[in-house]
Write a structure and sequence with these properties.
300 residues; globular; 9 helices
């Protein structure tokens, strides 16, 4: 993907101020709904790295709304200690005006890398669970949760081998949701949005979907992503760790809400998210989701 246009980089320099001059641009790996670039600036005080995030298409909802939501969330999180870093907002252009014509966010770069090959999954998963609990306990106001699932359009994946599992899950999810205590949630909580330094979780990114709703949605979403890339066993371990940390059980109904988001397009865009950072077993992906689906259905 090409680097941001000159007027977008000029916007970055203007917003940082202090006579900032762009001296380098590098595309960061991953990113499905937006393009993210690390921009190196030269200032009188020395070099500085910032992150420019631009929404280049409208296939994943309303980009301007995502920018507004992430702006508000990052500002609110400045007063909250999650035990890990979140980006500091420097500037935003929800319409793209002055920023190259596309909605954009400018943030300080925080330390760490996406870590998809842990030597030992236990501490890796435990830190993810602990950070999720902290997010869910944070007193942050946000818009109300809305489901990404359309029950009337549910279909089995084309390569499904256990139609009984999908049919049973579809029947359950078409019923009424259980009550829940509203909590702040990230809404896209999974390993592609976490940063690590030397096996330590140091940061959480991509707050454009944050909302207030059933915290178990975050768990279901993360568990689905763990299953498609790793194993259903890792997803189950993550649930057990979260339940131990939070002192409560995950409601399987909300698990199903997220597992049933899985579909035939996932193998394609998962390769984009992984971006060569580990092997992707596409052929076994649906089977791993079915294993997790079976485990969830046993909890009803």
């Amino acid at each position: 993907m090409p680097i941001p246009p000159r007027d977008a980089l000029d916007w970055v320099a203007r917003e940082v101020g202090g006579g900032a001059r762009v001296v380098g641009v590098r595309r960061m790996k991953g990113g499905i709904a937006s393009a993210v670039h690390r921009v190196r600036l030269e200032l009188s005080s020395g070099p500085r790295d910032v992150v420019l995030r631009r929404w280049l298409h409208d296939d994943w909802g309303d980009p301007a709304a995502s920018v507004h939501r992430e702006m508000a969330t990052l500002e609110a999180l400045r007063a909250v200690d999650l035990g890990v870093a979140v980006p500091t907002l420097l500037a935003a252009s929800p319409t793209g005006a002055g920023a190259g014509g596309r909605p954009a966010l400018l943030m300080d770069r925080i330390a760490g890398r996406v870590h998809l090959s842990p030597r030992d999954p236990q501490p890796w998963l435990r830190q993810m669970a602990r950070t999720a609990v902290r997010i869910h306990h944070a007193a942050v106001e946000a818009i109300p949760y809305e489901s990404w699932l359309e029950p009337e359009k549910l279909e089995r994946p084309a390569d499904a081998t256990r139609p009984d599992l999908w049919d049973a899950a579809h029947a359950i999810i078409r019923g009424d949701p259980p009550p829940y205590a509203p909590r702040f949630l990230h809404r896209d909580y999974q390993h592609f949005n976490l940063l690590w330094v030397r096996e330590r979780l140091t940061g959480v990114l991509d707050w454009g979907s944050a909302c207030v709703g059933p915290a178990d949605i975050d768990l279901g979403h993360c568990r689905l992503n763990l299953a498609v890339l790793f194993t259903a066993d890792w997803a189950e371990r993550f649930r057990a760790m979260y339940e131990a940390e939070a002192g409560r059980a995950i409601d399987p109904w909300w698990d199903l809400q997220e597992l049933l988001v899985y579909g035939d397009s996932w193998p394609r865009f998962l390769h984009v998210a992984v971006a060569g950072r580990r092997p992707v077993d596409t052929a076994g992906m649906t089977g791993r989701v079915e294993s997790l689906l079976e485990a969830v259905l046993r909890r009803f």
